[in-house]
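Chapter summary example.
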Amino acid sequence: MNRLGLVIGQLSWGGAERQLHELATRIQAEGFVPTVYCLSEDIEPYGPMLRDRGISVRVFPRRSHFDLGRAWALRRALAADEVDLAHAWLVNDDAYAALAHIGGPRPWVASMRSRPLDRDGLRKRIDRWTFRRADRVVVNESEVIDFLERELGCPRSKVTLIPNGVDFERLLGSRSREAVRSELNTPLDSPALQFAGRLEGVVDDEQADEQHQQFPIDQPEHLVAVQAAREQQQAGAGERRHFARQGGEQEDDEQGAGNQQALGGLPGVEDGVVRLAPFR
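The structure predicted for these 280 residues follows.
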């Protein structure tokens, strides 16, 4: 079993999309044959990056919000590619994977990376049907396991918890707190807040100020953001904000990881909800 199908709704900038890129390229190096099935034409930037690495990316154009034709097209593509195991990446992709596997011999894995909010009655029924049909379900926090069991009737026995994280030892091990603070012109004794994630369309200045006021420390002189390099100029960096690049190139990733390591602990980020964490 070495042919793996990775199903995702888009390959645009985002944490889940980046995780898919990392997984696909690394398992390819270990002898697996990944194929990516994108359920829309939104494939920039990771689609071309995957193709440059020799990984096939199949695109299924989106014609409507819930397009059953994409599920049948996905089913045909998985069979044609002789995929041994399929993995749906996000909660809205899971239903397509479930439909594509009705009556089929192939096992498939669903994912839930945060609890879905504002689901109407129809979507909840679809979710229950979907997660009960999955052979395995991957989640990234224990609260999601409770939600799956309580709200969707998904047995705990089929759920695997894989927390998000950054492998600092692999990416970088030598950058010191002093060096990073110096580069960012941030005094060592200045309290600061750190968050990881995208600012564009996720967190603006007012939201960030509101969130960090909950912590029992003095008003920080600096907010340090680690975000995608593409958005660095679009995020409206103010006098109190410094940006560490973490983009598509390896050197940017190492720089960003080093800044994370030197500045403090890595807080959680769940589908656009940024959790701020204080450090000194």
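To summarize the output: The longest helix spans residues 15-29.
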